[in-house]
Amino acid sequence: MKTIKGPGLFLAQFVGTSAPFDSFGAITAWAAECGYRGVQVPSGAEALIDLDQAAASKGYCDELSGQAQANGVCITELSAHIQGQLVAVHPAFDDAFDGFAPAHLRGNPRARQEWAVEQVRKTIDASANLGLDRMAAFSGALAWPYFYPWPQRPAGLVEAAFDELATRWRPILDHADSRGVDICFEIHPGEDLHDGISFEMFLDRVDQHPRARMLYDPSHYLLQQLDYLENIDIYASRIGMFHVKDAEFNPTGRQGVYGGYQPWVQRAGRFRSPGDGQVDFKGVFSRLTTHGFDGWAVVEWECALKHPEDGAREGAAFVRDHIIRVTERAFDDFADGGADHAANLRMLGLKA
């Protein structure tokens, strides 16, 4: 067993144009003041990191790490969620996802996809230059418009989508392997990798690639009504990252899992700040610790009700209180009377 690292904070929901959220130095100092020991950095946030420099220069990465450490935190991982999303986009979502790409690429899906692949590769290189062995990403989605089987899906449609998804990601995974970096796909609705079975379908097509791992976020599983504790038992060897995000699901006679197109506040299932929802985090931390998870517990603030700065401050204390410092001895060692082979035989009524 290992003691989970933390608390960490994912900065994607906080970076902005006003202080202290508009520069790497200021936001890391703020995170430390909130009680965090680490920060997860979105690689596309230009206010926080120059990805081109980070991918090409270890010296630049050393300076960035040094600045974080001087402010009391370390960089836990880089995230390429947005860029990973653009590796595979169904045409139905072209307009919606064009905003994730630079303006000069909008309206050009092929160029946008090529840019996204290069961005993910640069995030891999930057991670290696920072001395990190894992990063986060979305998988993107080609089959998602067909997740509900009506109209009836033509035979082979989903298989063709996953074949293509694997074809796009396999070279990226191979590059990650060459740099010693795992790609932890956040298992997330809206992505083709949205639950355990879909993740397995992808793994089969990339030959169980050792660099393809999971970012575990129980909030997405609770909203799908998936057993998020058993999921840890099944996929422990593939879980490389952990987001601490809460959720609640309160179905009514009028709406359930699909939410009736309502805004987040009015949905039966909605995200909450850690401790305000229904996720059994004592169980989650216990299962991850039992299975030897060696990564960070990183708060991802997404809440339909609470102010983000309050959620951040409370989240640091919440994670700190849930981390289990693993024991180095058994609780009943005091009663150990010692034994040897001959004594064991005597206790069994056997002759030595």
List keywords for this structure.
single chain; 352 residues; alpha/beta; TIM Barrel; eight-stranded parallel beta barrel; two-stranded antiparallel ribbon; 10 strands; 40% helix; globular
Any idea how many domains?
A: 1
Work out the helicity level.
40-55%
Q: How large, in whole angstroms, is the Cα Rg?
A: 22 Å
Count every helix, treating DSSP H or I runs of 4 or more residues as helices.
Answer: 13
CATH architecture identity: Alpha-Beta Barrel
Query: What gap, in angstroms, lies between the N and C termini?
Result: 36 Å
The computed structural class is alpha/beta
What is the CATH class?
Answer: Alpha Beta
How would you describe the shape?
Answer: globular
Report the strand count.
10
Question: Could you please describe the fold and organization of this structure?
Answer:
- By secondary structure, the protein is an alpha/beta fold.
- The protein has one domain: Divalent-metal-dependent TIM barrel enzymes (TIM Barrel), CATH 3.20.20.
- It has 13 helices and 10 strands.
- Strands 1-2-3-4-5-6-7-10 form an 8-stranded parallel β-barrel, surrounded by 5 helices.
- The longest helix is centred in the middle third of the chain and has 23 residues.
- It is globular.
